[in-house]
Amino acid sequence: MTEAQRGGRDLILRGRTLSFVDDPFSVGADNAVRHEWDGAVLIRDGAIDAVGPANDIIARAPDVPVESHGDKLLMAGFIDCHAHYPQTSVIASYGTQLLEWLETYTFPAENRFSDPDVARSAAETFLDECIRNGTTTACVYGTVHEGSADAFFEAAAARNMRMAGGKVAMDRHAPEFLVDTAQSAYDASKALIGRWHGKGRAHYAITPRFAPTSTPEQLEALGALWREVPDVLVQTHLSENTNEIAWVRELFPECPDYLGVYEKFGLLGPGAIFGHAIHLEPREIGVLRDSGSGIAHCPTSNTFIGSGLFDMAGLRDNAAPLPVGLATDVGGGSSFSMFSTMRTAYEIAQLRGYALHPAKAYWLATVGSAEVMRLDDRIGNLTPGRDADIIALDLRSTPVIAQRVATAESLWEELFAQMILADDRAVSAVYIAGNRVA
Q1: How is the beta sheet containing 11-20 ordered, strand by strand?
Q2: 133-170 b/e with 16+ CB inside 10 Å = b?
Q3: How far is CA 429 from the centre of its chain?
Q4: Quick one: DSSP state of residue 278?
Q5: Which contacts qualify for 19-23: CB closer than 8 Å, 24 or more apart?
Q6: Is the peptide bond before 198 cis (omega within 30 degrees of 0)?
Q7: pLDDT tens-digit series, residues 115-157
Q8: If phi over 0 gives left and psi between -120 and 50 gives alpha, with beta otherwise, what is residue 28?
Q9: Cα–Cα distance for residue pair 133/149, rounded to 1 Å
Q10: Which of 77, 100, 326, 414 is the most exposed, fewest CB within 10 Å of its CB?
């Protein structure tokens, strides 16, 4: 990777700093974080070299320029582990649930991506919105068109963003203009892996949309591809909607449950990311846990499309937790903002009798998503060795928030106020590999 790809000059960022030293679901909020009121981050060659008290970091590198962010909070950029960039144009569309949503909004929107100019424009808009909202990495679905993945990776490379994505595979139960075949899905995905995976900051994700739109032959071909290139990701959907689950039972009667379909075709394991996972059976939970597969919790989508309430306590906050990250699921999800996403995750948990602590919410939106994407050694935390994908948050970005924060008695009260009240105005700076982009 060139210096321009990694990052430019060495730099120190000064402000309040927030790092995770452990999982708050396991050790509790206060034991999970390191917070410096006057902290600093030393960036060298696009990566975090050191984090600590400002005076110590500045003394360590006295010749490195300092950019001060005052009392802004410096932390790792947000990570969105499940989103559909082609659906940006149908975000906030009225009145349907999952299967109707696909027919009414998704498929017509995705048909337009046969035009490379449409794909390029949509990718630009999506990534610009990510940056504006402090999201520095995402795992993204394209369309069935091979060019949709090319357009996305090209736009991400131009911004030097660490992004994952893939061409959707569908060879049945979709409009004729959006279906491929088992062979063409395999061939196109393999070609895209060769062009993009591991080039710069790009990561490929094999992407069957969901079990109903892939024949057994296509799922078998994609499972074979993952065995050939096991360091790529797999992303798909699981148990989002009760009608969807019933449909899967009809299509795959030989399988014990919905997850059993992916299990049968070798699409489970670390790096497999299952969106939603709301209505899981006990067997499925055990298989997910044993396989090391990850879940993308998509709260604003689950409420907006009326799919159901994710069981955070049952799946994550117990003695045998599953890997879980937080995701917007744009455009079924109703916002690019991870603040809105955390707020809705909190509200869903409340409806299930569980209070999602802000330490856990911010962990899910950074380290948790990085873990399910198998990138936690590179991104997701303000710690040495990670990429310098960093955001600065203004914890007083609006008069109402400033008034609320003025009475806060702890870091957690301040961060909870952001979860409930903040939006993109709270994101005062964004650094990608050490270079300021917003």
Answers
A1: 47-53, 33-44, 11-20, 66-76, 390-393, 427-432, 435-436
A2: bbbbbbbbbbbbbbbbbbbbbbbbbebbbbbbbbbbbb
A3: 20
A4: -
A5: 19/51, 19/75, 19/381, 19/382, 19/383, 20/363, 20/366, 20/367, 20/381, 20/383, 23/363, 23/367
A6: no
A7: 999 999 999 999 999 999 999 999 999 999 999 999 999 999 9
A8: left
A9: 22
A10: 100
- Would you say 81 and 296 are in contact if contact means Cβ atoms under 8 Å apart? yes
Looking at residue 387, the DSSP 8-state letter turns out to be B
Cα 329 from chain centroid (whole Å):
9
Bridge partners of 235, per DSSP, are: 273
Lowest mean per-residue pLDDT among 33-47, 91-105, 188-202, 306-320:
91-105
Unique residue bearing structure tokens 């990311």: 273
Strands 202-208 and 233-238, by their bridges, are: parallel
Whose structure tokens read 């994101």? 427
Q: Which of 299, 301, 330, 303 is nearest to 88 (CA)?
A: 330
CA distances from 413 to 77, 364, 365, 422 (A): 20, 18, 18, 13
Length of the chain: 438
**Residue 55 burial class via C-beta count within 10 angstroms: exposed 0-12, middle 13-18, buried 19 and up:** exposed
Reported as a single tens digit per residue, the pLDDT across 398-409 is: 999 999 999 999
Q: Which amino acid, residue 143? A: T
The beta strands (E) that lie in 202-287 are given as 202-208, 233-238, 272-276
Q: Distance between CA 179 and CA 200 in Å, rounded?
A: 30
